[in-house]
Amino acid sequence: MKVINFSESNSIINQYMAEIRDAEYQKNRLLFRNNIQRVGEFEAFEISKTLNYENKDIKTPLGIAQVNIPTDKIVLATIFRAGLPFHNGFLNVFDHAGNAFVSAYREYVDEAHHEVGVHVEYLATPSIDEKTLVIADPMLATGSSMELGYKAFLTKGTPKRIHVACVIATPEGIEHIKKTFPEEKTTIWCAAIDPGMNEHKYIVPGFGDAGDLCYGNKI
């Protein structure tokens, strides 16, 4: 399974990541959401290079232009609520794509908040059968929510290609995807890979809780 880590080479995405991580800068939710969205746009552009294309004649006001057009049918999937700005970045690029949504949230199963479960309860998706599925979630920590979301989407078909896209991943999360997703047709895309997680399963150094930073604290 191929893992694309954009932090291995310098690009403007470094600036977006610096601002996303900055504890002062991220206090402005609008700016934080915008940077998450821009990372999504960047990753979507790179994913577009892997698609299948065919040549088409396009009629212009002055003649005929030949243009290579992508032929893959794409479904963009995300996990509520943290994934929404990231998803919008992908949708800005793949504006003809179908859209799929699943609700997943953390459940702490012990009083010390050390054991974390993931609960899935809502699913809205078109058929993904024989389509290119892009699952966009900002944080790939343990990989559990990504796996459960993927299994929920599989009730609507079997995709021909899978792209797992995130802003920050951990080695543990990547290994979990490698074990639970089909190896030959899955690619992982991330803007950075951080070394690990704390006892509450938050990525360290990471940038905090993506959902809260985008939309405010929850109760």
Automatic annotation (TrEMBL):
Top-level division of the source organism's lineage: Bacteria
Classification via InterPro entries: PRTase-like, PRTase_dom
Gene3D superfamilies according to UniProt: 3.40.50.2020
SUPFAM superfamilies: PRTase-like
Homology family: Belongs to the UPRTase family.
Keywords: Allosteric enzyme, Glycosyltransferase, GTP-binding, Nucleotide-binding, Transferase
Protein name: Uracil phosphoribosyltransferase
Record bears the keyword Transmembrane helix: no
Pathway(s) per entry: Pyrimidine metabolism; UMP biosynthesis via salvage pathway; UMP from uracil: step 1/1
Phosphoribosyltransferase domain span: 10-216
PANTHER family: HYPOXANTHINE PHOSPHORIBOSYLTRANSFERASE (PTHR43363), HYPOXANTHINE-GUANINE PHOSPHORIBOSYLTRANSFERASE (PTHR43363:SF1)
